[in-house]
Design goal:
Number of domains of chain A: 1
Number of helices of chain A: 3
Radius of gyration of chain A: 12 Å
Oligomer: heterodimer
Strand content of chain B: 25-35%
Order of helices and strands of chain A: HHH
Largest interface: A-B, 26 and 30 residues
Shape of chain B: globular
Number of strands of chain A: 0
Order of helices and strands of chain B: EEEEEEEHHHHEHHEEEEEEHEHEEEEH
Strand content of chain A: under 5%
CATH class of chain A: Mainly Alpha
Helix content of chain A: 40-55%
Shape of chain A: globular
Helix content of chain B: 25-40%
Distance between the termini of chain A: 16 Å
Number of helices of chain B: 9
């Protein structure tokens, strides 16, 4: 999966959880929680959805890397590449 | 028309998801009603066959009006009508079948906007939940304006005014060391994939629910001048909606279910509250409310009871604070727990024991 389709998936997932937030309008470099109301339960649902769609393991200690859209895409790309390589 | 909260007087039947002659089972979603709190899926509370639909879609009817006649299995056709006047209380909500899938989800804010603009939000084409932007696009209107206080604001105002007018609240607070609970949580989460992990919120909720089961004066309703305790603990989860407003749908049997199951149910409930898909039983029967404003960074909350309930428990943020352990000051994660309870039903003494009970449950964590 390339960066572009990963980004699309991340935005879609955000949009499903926070339909009123218009994820496309968010600054991808900034923490999502600083831009919209997004609490720990939303984040949990977000992480579960990414885990289920991509089949990647996301340890809790990596959660901070999922805080912005850019960070999320980078992190997931690394996980997918790592999995392919490993 | 089921009563979906003490403040509800009427609702509009939006659509039927079953037809006359269909077989229905307890817990099935058979209709959607529009209330000031958004669209609610109405569940049926028995097995049977739909004999007659009594209310046309689009009609607003008072609470208590029969919506349909459902004949139980084995009941002769001429038997008196069974009225759909109250909500079901199923343990697990059954999926409503194919009919449910034909309707698009609409977020609560989009639903409000759609009403303002006269748009049928559920009929819009597309994928995923309908958003405010979708509704505005459909209406051909410009970007979002400041939304005037709508029905939900008025409903909250009515319920909270009634609470402050009628309920003599008393308030108690305590601080609880969350160290042991969080350590156990971290150990549990470290070994498990994302969907099986737990959030601190579910520990807090669970402790409040288990304590409520032991202190019946905190659980149930105040009706007709007396307390009606509830045997079950259905915890109302105060949930802020992104477009503004608040709902507190029930997490059923919050005291008895295993933590992982409760976690999934909680995440599902919050998600459905925020995307506009709550069920009638969830709106109708909370026995106590739990509010966790700690998420916003505040250390403590002095909440207002949702009438006709008799207590509400508030949790602040879990923050690291100096704490004395065995004569030494050490940093510990501490949460401020508060209780607002109805003085007509209980006194501070019982309230204090209840609150201390929550503290004990949190400080001596159970196995998940």
């Amino acid at each position: 999966m390339n960066q572009e389709s990963l980004r699309k998936l991340v935005l879609e997932t955000l949009g499903r959880i926070a339909p009123d937030a218009d994820p496309a309008a968010l600054d991808p470099a900034v923490n999502v929680r600083d831009q919209i109301d997004f609490d720990s339960m939303d984040f949990y649902n977000f992480a579960v959805a990414l885990h289920e769609k991509l089949g990647v393991e996301i340890p809790e200690s990596d959660y901070p890397r999922l805080s912005s859209i850019d960070g999320c895409v980078r992190y997931l790309q690394e996980k997918i590449d790592g999995r392919v390589a490993g | 028309m089921p009563s979906l909260g003490a403040d509800m007087e009427a609702g509009t039947l939006t659509r039927w998801l079953v037809g006359e002659g269909d077989t229905v089972h307890r817990g099935d979603i058979i209709a959607v009603v529009e209330t000031v709190k958004g669209a609610i899926d109405v569940e049926v509370f028995e097995d049977g066959r739909v004999e007659k639909l009594l209310v046309e879609p689009g009609t607003e009817v008072p609470v208590g009006t029969p919506l349909a006649r459902i004949r139980s299995e084995g009941e002769p056709a001429a038997a008196p009508a069974v009225q759909e006047t109250q909500a079901a209380r199923p343990r697990a909500a059954a999926p409503g079948g194919a009919a449910v899938a034909t309707r698009r989800r609409v977020s609560p804010a989009a639903r409000r906007r759609a009403r303002e603009l006269g748009v049928d939000a559920e009929a819009l084409e597309g994928e995923g939940p309908v958003t405010v932007a979708d509704v505005e696009r459909a209406a051909g209107s410009g970007p979002a304006r400041a939304v005037p206080p709508g029905g939900m604001r008025a409903a909250i105002a009515a319920a909270m005014s009634r609470s402050k007018r009628e309920i003599p609240h008393y308030y108690l607070q305590t601080s609880v060391d969350m160290g042991a609970a969080l350590e156990r949580l971290a150990a549990w989460n470290a070994e498990r994939p994302v969907p099986e992990r737990l959030l601190p919120a579910v520990l807090l909720l669970r402790a409040a629910a288990r304590a409520a089961a032991r202190y019946p004066e905190m659980n149930g309703w105040y009706r007709d001048g007396a307390h009606a305790p509830s045997a079950a603990v259905h915890a109302g989860m105060a949930t802020a909606l992104r477009g503004g407003g608040l709902v507190a749908p029930a997490l059923h049997d919050a005291d008895g279910r295993p933590l992982p199951e409760l976690m999934r149910a909680l995440a599902d409930l919050v998600s459905r509250a925020r995307t506009g898909r709550l069920r009638s039983s969830e709106m109708a029967d909370p026995t106590i409310t739990v509010t966790s404003l700690g998420e916003q960074g505040v250390e403590s909350v002095l909440p207002v009871i949702f009438p006709p309930q008799v207590a509400i428990v508030g949790f602040g943020s879990i923050v690291e604070r100096p704490w004395v352990v065995a004569g030494k000051v050490v940093p510990r994660p501490v949460v401020r727990v508060s209780l607002a309870a109805d003085h007509r039903v209980s006194d501070g003494h019982r309230g204090a024991r209840f609150l201390a009970g929550i503290g004990r449950l949190l400080e001596n964590p159970e196995e998940p």
